[in-house]
Write a structure and sequence with these properties.
Blueprint (H helix, E strand, L loop, with lengths): L1 H39 L1
């Protein structure tokens, strides 16, 4: 049971880190895209 709990925690941390990275990448891309579009326009 202890190993199962560690597996669940590890998967949760990995999933959270992946989701957080996706959000940060999206925000950075959106900001850069907005600046680029504003600069062109």
């Amino acid at each position: 049971m202890n190993q199962a709990l560690a597996t669940v925690i590890g998967m949760t941390i990995a999933y959270a880190a992946s989701f957080l990275g996706l959000i940060l990448a999206y925000r950075a891309w959106r900001k850069h895209h907005k600046n680029q579009s504003h600069d062109e326009g």
